[in-house]
Design a protein that fits this description.
By secondary structure, the chain is α/β, with parallel strands linked by helices. The chain is built from eleven helices and eight strands.
């Protein structure tokens, strides 16, 4: 049985925080430039820190543009999580930005992933582009009803490596905001998962608690993105404070 990958969203920021996450046993981290306060420069530093710690770093980009896609791939993102997908045409545009020919039309320039052209493995441009197409994952999010309606077409596209289920926004779009146990949400998620399995594409899902993380792993998802690092940080200290106050009988 293939190991279920287990990661988290990086929101706190700071190289030390990234280095600490690398020691946690997580399989990957998603640097959130959609909601996070990160620049291209700081994101590059976090990617390097993750690489040095032996942990792959994905990036969630904030908009569907050639600039956003290229910059994050060129600084070393191992994959892109892309939110707010609403049409097949948008995904096709993403593929054209993110994948080199013959799959897409990604712009070529020596960058840090190839040692700016100095690394021996990247000296053959065609081999380098093929490797990037294989290793740099493009993972659209399914978090809108439009994407859900077109999920079969989206998943089937050559260049889409997987789908990330954004449970929070999908539930809101379906009119059942944050009702994670709602049967309609479960049915939608299972539809996405089944479609990924059918087309042999990777399946990712966000889980806000360990119960849902285990449930979706047992359902067959390839990867669980568990909560946000900052949420885990807050809850851990809340638990410690609560235990301390309880033990010494202070409010």
């Amino acid at each position: 049985m293939q190991k279920t990958q287990f990661g988290t969203f990086f929101e706190i920021g700071g190289i030390s925080a990234m280095e600490a996450l690398c020691r946690s046993g997580l399989d990957y981290v998603i640097i959130d430039t959609e909601h996070g306060r990160f620049s291209v420069e700081s994101t590059a530093e976090y990617i390097i820190a993750a690489e040095n710690g032996g942990m792959p770093a994905y990036v969630r980009i904030g908009d569907i543009s050639r600039h956003s896609v290229l910059r994050m791939l060129d600084i070393g993102a191992r994959g892109l999580i892309v939110p707010n997908i609403r049409s097949v045409e948008k995904v096709k545009k993403l593929i054209s930005y993110a994948k080199f020919p013959p799959i897409g039309n990604r712009g070529y320039c020596p960058n840090r992933t190839s040692g700016w052209g100095a690394d021996e493995w990247a000296s053959d441009a065609l081999a380098y582009m093929k490797t990037c197409n294989q290793q740099c994952k493009l993972i659209p999010q399914c978090e809108t009803t439009e994407a859900l309606d077109k999920i079969e077409e989206i998943v089937a596209l050559d260049g889409v490596d997987g789908i990330f289920v954004g449970s929070c926004d999908l539930s809101i779009a379906m009119g059942i905001p944050l009702q994670f146990e709602h049967p309609d949400l479960h049915a939608a998620i299972k539809k996405i998962l089944t479609t990924c399995k059918k087309h042999k594409k990777e399946s990712y899902i966000f889980a806000g608690n360990i119960h849902n993380a285990i449930m979706w792993a047992e359902a067959g998802f390839d990867s669980i993105a568990y909560s946000l690092d900052v949420s885990v940080f807050i809850q851990a200290y809340r638990n410690i404070v609560e235990q301390f106050r309880k033990e010494i009988a202070q409010p």
